[in-house]
Design a protein that fits this description.
Blueprint: E1 11-14, E2 22-24, E3 29-32, H1 34-37, H2 42-59, H3 63-91, H4 97-135, H5 143-182
Parallel strand pairs: 1-3
Antiparallel strand pairs: 2-3
Helix pairs in contact: 2-4, 2-5, 3-4, 4-5
Length: about 180
């Protein structure tokens, strides 16, 4: 898939860990778990193509991937402290509501990251499926199985984003209820 898209500077390597498949734009590597890297199943081909889809996104400066990449430093910072800021903010909501508001902002950054991840993942799967079909890596009977594998993988990102949005709304309601009791 990489060569078919004119990409020759990305390495595909085996990486330790189960379900650890990912594309790393920093060092231009497609990192595949041993099950996928050495796999001969339809799902292994679909996952490998999906991760290569991220490399294609990177090479073509896909806007959602670019936005997500720009958020990584902020998400790395906020995810390390957000739970403590939120906990302290909830405990002190009546005396120091700004702390909870700060926690909401930090959590909002991680929620935004989850939401921006959706088009990135859906597009990588779309690219993977198009290539699997076009290259004949999968036949007519196998293609629907590859499509199912990628669909269900994408649903995990959707559920995570929805859960993050719901949790953010919950924290906002806690903040608003605390501000009403101060009035």
């Amino acid at each position: 898939m990489l060569k078919d898209n004119g990409i020759y500077d990305v390495k595909v390597i085996s990486a330790q860990g189960f379900l650890s498949d990912h594309y790393n734009p920093a060092n231009k590597t497609v990192n595949l778990s041993p099950e996928v890297y050495q796999g001969v199943s339809i799902s292994a081909a679909a996952v490998a193509a999906h991760e290569c889809g991220h490399a294609v996104q990177h090479a073509t400066a896909y806007q959602w991937l670019t936005m997500r990449s720009k958020l990584v430093p902020a998400v790395s910072f906020s995810s390390g402290i957000v739970q403590w800021v939120l906990l302290a903010g909830i405990i002190m909501v009546n005396t120091f509501p700004q702390l909870l508001l700060g926690g909401i902002i930090l959590f909002g950054i991680t929620t935004l990251f989850s939401v921006i991840t959706l088009p990135v993942e859906f597009d990588a799967s779309r690219r993977a499926l198009a290539w699997l079909d076009r290259s004949r890596v999968t036949n007519a009977q196998e293609y629907p199985k590859a499509k199912d594998a990628l669909k269900w993988a994408a649903m995990t990102y959707l559920v995570a984003a929805l859960a993050s949005v719901a949790t953010l709304v919950q924290y906002i309601f806690i903040y608003l209820s605390g501000s009403r009791s101060r009035d």
